[in-house]
Task: inverse folding
């Protein structure tokens, strides 16, 4: 009689259990459902165990795109985005995108590989040191050199990444730690096997942000100031989005009858078709007439001119770090925008407050100012509906008209391309917070491909209302291959590529001349341009994407319609649009940009460049030099061949 084979216990022939299981367990405990990244030998064990604990792995083509995807996923779900990357090149490839997440105050947990501890400062394979690379672009970093540290620091990173100002946290797991036997061969320390770790430490709220309320006396004073003001306005920023305060913002604005503008990821926190909404495009006019600004969750920096033209201000923010001393402030309240707004709403109701006399005239005036500005932009763009190649202003209008007609203006919009990033925001009328995403203060390109992927994974509703990702051809050059990831997972994304030969091609007509005459002779063939007429649609049609090419503005609507139909069916689409290369981002016509080209000799400047320097650089003795005043050029107008020469 043959004996039954003896059952060999799990762990006799493999490393089971292993330290990486702690990582998988901690992530699931905190509600992690998805992680973006790329494998590598140092982290195979970690990534495999994450998968074995139910976290879906999205294998990207580049670590930078993985971080961008996690950023957008976080903005859509209001949970920390999770990224994995191997040691050395994997960690290094993350850095630029982590910096963007840092500027965008996006909660993120990075699970990064590390070399063997015993190889520190030696010429080992793929060395990297996360703290040295990322300490200035994360909230903090930690090198987890022993398995007993893993759960504690994942729990802490999850909590701290969501504490305002939110941001990325990087955890490094050296291979020597991942290969340490568990349970430990020696008894655990005095604090137990997992140092300073308690499972489900916050019960059902484990993994969620902890709200902070405002001082009740300051909240009451803020309400009093708002009701006493004649022309108050609210400017809603990132903190409104992260605290999920949209409903409270709308309720407060309607009760107090205060016009509201929104910025960055908070666009749509008050629907931009609401009668109390006013757009930042008319911001100077409205702020110039206002007698009280309420900065609500705002991160006030360069793009807000540091609040230099604001009236007296109430600052409300979840962290003292974002109560800014360069703003003339009458009152500062530290608290979550959601909690503080609810406190103010309760104060209004408890005291039966009514908007003061004259408030209706102010709200009507701001609405009229906004509507007039929007109508003027629409009319200006319409002037170019027959212009070929396609004008950026008209493309922006056509894209948003399409979104309104087919989807009620509810598409998530990712803005990437440099020139389209200037024209598109003014036409969008966002309906919900988190609808519009960009590169924040990073102001880079190439983020859009990954961010669209993260947004599509985070929002199941995109299956019926696809993500529209507006790329430039330079950003495509940096990140395009991750479109294969979108196609692989059948994501409902339409990538619209504005093809204008890349980088600073449009600027040559204003500052370098049509033949790049301001550069050295050896560089005048190509200057800062790509090859002309690159067919990005054809590139991705080959791998299975739905593809469209547009070289006539009359084709835009139908091409978007077909692309979105394909995207709804799970076929990622690429729409390649041939753009007028002479149309530049309008900011390049601003005074500050002229300093960037101050080195170019006057005689080599094209005519528009001369006019800009003459108008914006008063330090030169123009009258003594016999150079008369020149009219400012209109950046919307295409540059003629004659204008493009000195």
Result:
């Amino acid at each position: 009689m043959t004996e039954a084979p003896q059952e060999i216990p799990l762990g006799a022939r493999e490393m089971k259990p292993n330290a990486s299981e702690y990582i998988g367990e901690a992530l699931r405990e905190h509600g992690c459902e998805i992680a973006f990244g790329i494998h590598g030998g140092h982290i195979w064990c970690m990534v495999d165990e994450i998968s074995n604990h139910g976290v879906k792995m999205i294998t990207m083509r580049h670590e930078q795109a993985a971080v961008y995807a996690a950023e957008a996923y976080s903005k859509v779900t209001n949970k920390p985005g999770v990224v994995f990357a191997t040691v050395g090149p994997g960690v290094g490839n993350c850095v630029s995108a982590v910096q963007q997440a840092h500027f965008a105050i996006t909660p993120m947990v990075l699970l990064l590989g590390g070399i063997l501890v015993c190889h520190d400062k030696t010429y080992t394979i793929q060395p990297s040191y996360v703290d040295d690379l990322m300490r200035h672009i994360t909230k903090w970093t930690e090198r987890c050199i022993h398995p007993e540290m893993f759960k504690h620091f994942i729990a802490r990173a999850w909590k701290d990444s969501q504490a305002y100002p939110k941001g990325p946290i990087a955890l490094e797991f050296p291979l020597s730690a991942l290969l340490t036997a568990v349970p430990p061969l020696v008894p655990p320390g005095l604090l137990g096997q997992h140092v300073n770790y308690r499972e489900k430490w916050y019960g059902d709220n484990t993994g969620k942000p902890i709200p902070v309320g405002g001082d009740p006396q300051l909240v009451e004073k803020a309400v009093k100031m708002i009701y006493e003001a004649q022309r108050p306005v609210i400017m809603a920023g990132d903190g409104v989005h992260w605290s999920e305060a949209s409903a409270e913002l709308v309720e407060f604005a309607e009760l107090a009858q205060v016009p509201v503008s929104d910025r960055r990821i908070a666009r749509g926190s008050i629907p931009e078709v609401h009668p109390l909404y006013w757009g930042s495009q008319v911001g100077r006019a409205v702020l110039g007439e206002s007698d009280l600004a309420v900065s609500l969750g705002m991160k006030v920096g360069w793009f807000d001119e540091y609040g230099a033209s604001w009236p007296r201000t109430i600052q409300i923010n979840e962290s003292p770090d974002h109560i800014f001393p360069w703003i003339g402030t009458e009152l500062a309240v530290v608290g979550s925008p959601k909690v503080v707004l609810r406190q103010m709403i309760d104060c209004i109701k408890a005291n039966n407050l009514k908007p003061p006399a004259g408030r209706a005239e102010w709200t009507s005036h701001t609405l009229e100012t906004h509507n007039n500005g929007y109508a003027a932009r629409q009319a200006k763009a319409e002037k170019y509906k027959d212009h070929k190649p396609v004008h950026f202003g008209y493309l922006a209008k056509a894209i948003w008209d399409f979104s309104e007609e087919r989807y009620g203006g509810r598409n998530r919009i990712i803005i990437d391309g440099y020139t389209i990033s200037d024209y598109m925001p003014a036409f969008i009328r966002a309906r919900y917070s988190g609808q519009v995403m960009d590169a924040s203060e990073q102001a880079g390109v190439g983020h859009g491909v990954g961010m669209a992927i993260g947004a599509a994974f985070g929002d199941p509703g995109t299956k019926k209302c696809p993500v529209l990702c507006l790329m430039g051809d330079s950003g495509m050059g940096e990140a395009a291959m991750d479109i294969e990831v979108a196609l692989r997972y059948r994501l409902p994304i339409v990538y619209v590529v504005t093809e204008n030969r890349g980088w600073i091609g449009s600027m040559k007509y204003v500052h370098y001349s049509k033949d790049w005459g301001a550069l050295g002779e050896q560089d005048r063939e190509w200057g800062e341009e790509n090859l002309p007429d690159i067919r990005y649609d054809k590139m991705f049609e080959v791998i299975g994407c739905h593809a469209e090419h547009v070289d006539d503005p009359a084709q835009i609507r139908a091409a978007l319609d077909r692309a979105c139909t394909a995207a709804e069916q799970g076929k990622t689409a690429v729409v390649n649009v041939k753009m007028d290369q002479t149309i530049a981002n309008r900011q390049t016509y601003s005074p500050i940009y002229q300093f960037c080209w101050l080195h170019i000799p006057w005689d080599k400047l094209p005519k528009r460049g001369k006019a800009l320097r003459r108008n914006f650089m008063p330090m030169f003795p123009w009258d003594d030099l016999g150079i008369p005043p020149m009219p400012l050029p209109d950046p919307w107008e295409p540059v003629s061949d004659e204008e493009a020469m000195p």
